[in-house]
TrEMBL record:
PANTHER family: 50S RIBOSOMAL PROTEIN L32 (PTHR35534), LARGE RIBOSOMAL SUBUNIT PROTEIN BL32 (PTHR35534:SF1). GO terms for biological process: translation. Belongs to the bacterial ribosomal protein bL32 family. Signal peptide: none annotated. It comes from the Bacteria. Keywords: Ribonucleoprotein, Ribosomal protein. One of its GO terms (molecular function) is structural constituent of ribosome. Transmembrane segments: none annotated. This is Large ribosomal subunit protein bL32. The keyword Ribosomal protein applies. GO terms for cellular component: large ribosomal subunit. Pfam families: Ribosomal_L32p.
Length: 47
């Protein structure tokens, strides 16, 4: 167990987007709305 201890994986940390509330990876642009830290970074087509 000691040798393989560094191989264990942790689940990614998901946090809600401050703009739309969708779960997203921390410190990334929200794929649902395109916002990061309150600014629109990418344009996302809305249905």
């Amino acid at each position: 167990m000691r040798r393989a201890n560094h191989d264990r994986r942790t689940a990614p940390v998901l946090s809600p987007c401050s703009n739309c509330g969708e779960l997203m990876l921390s410190h990334r642009v929200c794929p649902a709305c395109g916002f990061y830290k309150g600014r629109e970074v990418i344009a996302v087509e809305r249905d």
